[in-house]
Amino acid sequence: MDFKLGRINLNAVAQGVGGLVFGNDTSASSEDSYVERLLDRISNGVLADDRRSAMSQLQSIVAESRAAQLAFGAMGFPVLTAVLKEERDDIEMVRGALETLVSALTPTDAAGGKKNEVQPTLMNSDLLSREADSIPLLLSLLEEVDFYVRYYTLQLLTALLTHSPNRLQEAILTTPRGITRLMDMLMEREVIRNEALLLLTYLTREAEEIQKIVVFEGAFEKIFSIIKEEGGSEGGVVVQDCLELLNNLLRRGASNQILLRETIGFEQLVSILKLRGSAYNFTQQKTVNLLGALESIELLLMGGLDAEPGKDFNRQSNQTAFAQRNVLDHLLLLGVESPWAAVSVRCAALRCIGVLISNHPLNLDALANKVLGEEPHFEPALNSIFRIILRTSSLQEFIAADYVFKCFCEKNTNGQAMLASTIIPQPHSGIRDPLDEDIKMPFGSMLLRGLTVNENDEDLETCWRAASVLSHILKGNIQSKERVLQVKLEAPMTSFGTPELLMHRIVKYLAVGASMSRNNGDCKTSTSSSCLYTQPIILRLLVTWLADCPNAVHSFLGSQDHLTYLLELVSSLSETVFIRGLSAVILGECVLYNKSDDNGMDAFEVVDAISQKIGLASYFLKFDEMQKSFPFLSAKASQHRKPLARSSAASMSEVENVEESTAIDPKHDEDPVLMSIFDGPFVSIIKRLETDIRQSIVEVFSHPKSKVAVVPAEMEQKDGESNEDYIKRLKSFVEKQCKELQDLLGRNATLAEDVAKTGGAGVSGSDQANGGKERVQAETLRRDLQEAKQRVEVLKSEKTKIEAEASIYRNLAGKMESDLKSLSDAYNSLEQVNFRLESDVKALREGRSEPGLDLEAIKAEGREEVQKESEAELNDLLVCLGQEQSKVERLSTRLVELGEDVDSLLEGIGDDVGLPEDSEDEEDR
Amino acid sequence: MSYAYLFKYIIIGDTGVGKSCLLLQFTDKRFQPVHDLTIGVEFGARMITIDNKPIKLQIWDTAGQESFRSITRSYYRGAAGALLVYDITRQRETFNHLASWLEDARQHANANMTIMLIGNKCDLAHRRAVSTEEGEQFAKEHGLIFMEASAKTAQNVEEAFISTAATIYKKIQDGVFDVSNESYGIKVGYGGIPGPSGGRDGSASQAGGCCS
């Protein structure tokens, strides 16, 4: 019913809505009818005075009551638009209408209300901006002469813009000369100018096309002339608005930046940084203004959005142009020499120094040669900035100053070398405090003192800060890495101590830092940030140091404890993802860049240690875990600094709170220091290292260091080598190979276990990597198997050769036997002859006794002779037989070794062999 | 950075007639055969000399596509000169649209804007579809300066930009413009009285002081 009525009668809708919003409040309906009556007087009235007074009454009720605003929204817009269109001559009516509209869009003071109530102002601005011709109408009113008309119009536009920005932007863009009119307002009287400035600031926040047109209409000139008029950084909130508008125009496009550089240059922007007169007096407004100007400079020095083509060229041109305006001096004054300026200003100035020198050779040199202070207390600017790093109590300032060094060392080999060349340990003297400003020492000595001075306090604050700078100096610079590797420290506490390598000392601090964070338990409550940052920063230093530097790896592995400690860190569950990940990267570097041959610290040993203590799959998992956290970090980093805007509530207090709010936040993934550690370049280094490490570990597995060299030539029997020795040599060779095969099998089993463990976990990436390794492993094993087979083959042929020899000997033995047989036959026949002779002699003796004596003697003589003869012959035969026997014995044992059944082989011969024995027995008898 | 006058130009005309290439040839002296579609408006600048006076040209290269028409209209009023470009090889599309471009310009620009008609791609003589005479005729009818040019060979590119500037300069000398009103797209520079270029930067910043 309501719905139906609403279509017919607007008033009823208002009542309905009013009733909804205000419940049973009867005043709502009374206000409805009051507003209705006033509108009726305005549209249908005849007397000019009466209409005017109706307008002013309408304005005041709309300004005061939500119900009236609601009622006005339902009925009033067509009436007032008609006034604006058709009664331009009646300035008072137009003013009144505009003022009423402003009131209808401005929340009443009483509008605390319930949250879920309909906001009449929102509804009204939606209704007004929906009207197609209302915006062009308003823009045309800007050309009216009357001050209030223009003033209210601007206010109205601003109110519309805050509620429905997109619709207003579009409407202004499609209105010819719409922006031109707004820009003209900047040259108006102050009140209007400021109002227009605010409106333009809102308008340019997003819409790129509007930004360009505003620039085309000469916004830069106008902005700088207003800033100058208002007194530069000493000026009020108008200067802040100007700078916000300027930053909106510069933030996106290189095109606008080029225009600023090419047409009016940067002189006027730089001059805002000049501190006049009361340099010690930093009001909040001045701080905000300086921050705005520094943001403009930073935006210009960055050269626009990342994706834009020609960004680098634009950036360099801007860097050069700024350098010509001596911006470095102003920035150093603000960032380094103004301790009374707000921390946020000092940080912004330092960041600007960073982007000013980044990748710009001339500006890098300028900073390297810059000297601060007055005679005789000159000090290189870099030393002063380093002192800030060591000493500041603000993490934000540490990050900003650290950023300067990061930019200074980026692709600046000479600069790195210059800094590294001063790192020379100095004898411990009475002067122990590197933070003392009066003592000017070389950069390197400050760095070393910073690294080592606080170890006795169990507080590694300056240590991790200095370590961060050291990692910039070493990054990608092999000479500096080698140089700092040589640095040895005197052992401070032990009188007998030998000099200790700086690197080993740093690893020690890593362990100290770990134990500190363990002891402290909850780092969040600790006032010291040491326990949070010592480990990641030192690990980053080591990652940077070991990269591409075999000598650093050698030095690192010089102590067996280091490897053990790293393995512990990687698998420790109490450490963060980043610490485990970075430790894993260092372990990987120990494989990747390991050129050492020493036992116990070569790449194979490290890989074995990893796969045994951690398991390859879970080792690679550490990389994945860390990688997963990177995009999260970088996403956070991009939205880290939001532009300062007056409109974002209470910007003053915001400025003061910037550092606290970020510093207190203990969450790792939002931590500003961690974010500066894992900056883009470092993350990409880690990603590159990871692929290399994976490859090199696969390589180690596919080419295991062979303990047994297989040289085909050595497989052959050497000249003059006896069969026995040859066989022995082959045997030991096979044994060694077998042992190695066992090793490989063991490694293979570890891997298989690894795969089985992670197989179900679905870590497909590392799984595949491992699968690959498995395959490589299997390949190696198969090759080994083939080798072994071949060797068996060789041995087999060896055996047949020996068998053939054996049969030759067997034949030989047969011949001997047959010889023996014929001999024994001969002996038998002799025996027979002898027997016959004896019987002859017997017969003769019986016949004749006397001659028988002689005959007997002769017979004995003859028998003796024959016996002697046959005995000698037999002896010869026995010797010969013995020799044969031993030959057979040796051969048969060898055959047994070779697995031949000797008995069966000799079966046939065995019976024959018995014969000579028999004859021997006969002889004995 | 010092100049006697600063002139704002816009380049208009159908999409693909070579507006961006003309600008690139004029500011960077190079030709890019494949150019991305211009989105919205791009900017270029160059210093030239007329009558021994340094004159800075700020040139706004607009998108020719219909969808950007409403945006590019915002640039008309503040421009002192316009280069209206067509493609001599594409009569139907580009030459026939000149009238509608001109109407846009007349409607939104200030009345004294100097318009130069440019028949681009005159190196492609074998594909010519609009004769030189036709171009001249159109220019004469509508009171425009006319030139055929080639962004590829650079023929007449300098001349087109410079002769437009010379025309504007002459109008200034004749007192057509109130040069203190910046809405004509003309600005009197810091180095208003051009002389020997000694101490350029210094004089620029000083003059900047009294200018505001």
TrEMBL record, chain A:
InterPro entries, A to Z: ARM-like, ARM-type_fold, Uso1_p115_C, Vesicle_P115, Vesicle_Uso1_P115_head
Record keywords, A-Z: Coiled coil, Golgi apparatus
Domain (Vesicle tethering protein Uso1/P115-like head) ranges: 382-697
Domain named Uso1/p115-like vesicle tethering protein C-terminal: residues: 798-922
Membrane-spanning residues: none
Coiled coil regions, renumbered to chain: 778-833
Keyword Coiled coil set for record: yes
Entry-linked Gene3D superfamilies: Leucine-rich Repeat Variant
Localization per Swiss-Prot or TrEMBL: Golgi apparatus
Main location: Golgi
Pfam families (alphabetical): Uso1_p115_C, Uso1_p115_head
Domain of life: Eukaryota
GO aspect biological process, one term: endoplasmic reticulum to Golgi vesicle-mediated transport
GO cellular component, one term: Golgi membrane
Keyword Coiled coil: yes
Full protein name: Golgin candidate 6
Record organism: Coptis chinensis
From TrEMBL, chain B:
Protein name: Uncharacterized protein
MF annotations from Gene Ontology: GTP binding; GTPase activity
Protein localization: Endomembrane system
Cross-referenced PANTHER family: DRAB11-RELATED
Protein origin, superkingdom: Eukaryota
Gene3D superfamilies cross-referenced by the UniProt entry: P-loop containing nucleotide triphosphate hydrolases
GO cellular component: endomembrane system
